[in-house]
Specification:
Length: 396
């Protein structure tokens, strides 16, 4: 999958200003790699490059492989109660005022971010403050908001689509494919009407045993979407053994239980014929769809079998997330790991973000993960953030 690297110049050519903003974020991540890992008096907000904000625990879909709402989803039964705790617009504005000088990329997700009642004024405020704002959505509500999105110049929208119509709908719910495509049409219409280039439009596909044979069909269909990028995410998966090891470690080192990792113990990695998937990916990466294709993680194609079948074999290590990224949960809790919000660093309703990010709990987490084998915990195996921002292990 060497073709992945062609993404950078293509994106720059297509969207110079936005790409420059995005790559400034990556530059700061690079700085975090070389910053002193053991200096616990360091002001880590200087390297803050990516801030995830999980706006809401609510979702209108129940995608099968989802750690929150899928077959093993941990939010399924508590989302309604939890949704009463969401931050309000003023909480977010205070946070944005605090972090904006560091110019991090902001990544809004959920649940479904369009269910956050003030998403439009919130993104408008962020964009006005000069932030690069990326929204990850299931796309089923884009049609309704297309005019606002284009008018307010949202930076990027990543829409989740997991296959051509029938395959996608089997994973994400009946009718979801057509609603997403209607959203793309509405966005493209608005861009033309308002003579705007923003937002950058991307599709994210999570690869499972239900859709891998259908990836090329989706890639073909996506020619009509006027995309800027299509990301194939090899997926977050875990098993009983990894969950038990992570639970033990979190109890011993952090005196906390874990719940979210189990949500990815779904088995949707099982039965993927690595040789077939390899050929499918090579075929896709060899074609020109009018937009770049990116597979995450970038993997030695011969090792795809390991990725899906030997979950305990690391393909990335030395996670950089605690030194340059963070996740703000819907209730104001601050974490490092977006998908595994077990260890709370603090809450922005009670403390400034800077104090939390440089505080004792944050530094204790950094110190602990740094001292673990490979600079990661058992639960980091196949974590999406580690796949994106971990260090590539030789051979993978
Ligand atoms: C949890 S969703 C939240 C945003 C929004 N609801 C959506 O579906 O795009 C964020 C992303 O995680 C992806 N995802 C779901 N299950 C996953 C898994 N097991 N491994 C990796 N990514 C997964 C979704 O497809 C989506 O692209
Ligand atoms: S739409 Fe997103 S959050 Fe909702 S179930 Fe699907 S992947 Fe999970």
């Amino acid at each position: 999958m060497k073709q992945n690297f062609t993404v950078v110049p293509v994106l720059f050519k297509k969207r110079l200003t936005l790409s420059a903003k995005m790559f400034y974020g990556f530059f700061k991540m690079g700085k975090a790699w070389v910053s002193p890992k053991r200096n616990y008096n360091y002001n880590h907000t200087k390297n803050l490059s990516l801030v995830y904000m999980k706006l809401t625990p609510s979702c209108n879909l129940h995608c099968v492989m989802c750690g929150q709402y899928g077959v093993k989803g941990v939010m399924k039964h508590i989302a309604a109660e939890e949704s009463k705790k969401i931050l309000n617009l003023d909480d977010y504005k205070r946070l944005v005022d605090e972090i904006a000088p560091q110019r991090p990329v902001v990544y809004l997700w959920g649940g479904e971010p369009f269910l956050y009642p003030d998403i439009v004024p919130l993104v408008r405020y962020m964009v006005q403050k000069g932030l690069f704002v990326s929204v990850n959505t299931n796309g089923t509500m884009i049609e309704k908001y297309a005019e606002d999105i284009v008018r307010d110049k949202w930076s990027t929208i990543f829409v989740s689509l997991d296959g051509f119509r029938d395959t996608n709908d089997a994973m994400r719910g009946k009718g979801s494919y057509d609603r997403v495509v209607a959203g793309f049409r509405a966005l493209n219409r608005e861009k033309e009407k308002q003579k705007q280039h923003e937002p950058i439009l991307g599709v994210v596909t999570t690869v499972t045993n239900m859709n891998y044979m259908d990836l090329d069909k989706l890639a073909e269909a996506s020619r009509e979407f006027n995309l800027d990028i299509h990301i194939l995410n090899l997926g977050t998966y875990t098993n009983d053994h990894i969950v038990a090891a992570q639970r033990k470690l979190m109890k011993e080192k952090f005196d906390t239980d874990i719940d979210c990792l189990e949500g990815y113990n779904t088995g949707y990695n099982q039965g993927i014929d690595a040789e077939k998937l390899n050929l499918i990916l090579e075929n896709i990466h060899g074609k020109d769809y009018g937009h770049p294709m990116l597979t995450v993680p970038v993997l030695n194609t011969k090792k795809i079998h390991t990725y899906y079948n030997y979950l305990e074999t690391p393909v990335r290590n030395h996670c950089i997330v605690p030194w340059c990224q963070t996740n703000i949960n819907y209730n104001g809790d601050v974490h490092f790991c977006a998908d595994y919000p077990d260890y709370i660093l603090g809450n922005i309703r009670q403390q400034s973000f800077t104090d939390i990010y440089n505080g004792e709990r944050a530094n204790y987490f950094r110190k602990t993960i740094h001292s673990c084998k490979g600079g990661m915990f058992p639960g980091c195996l196949r974590c999406y953030q580690n796949m994106l921002f971990g260090k590539k292990i030789r051979g993978y």
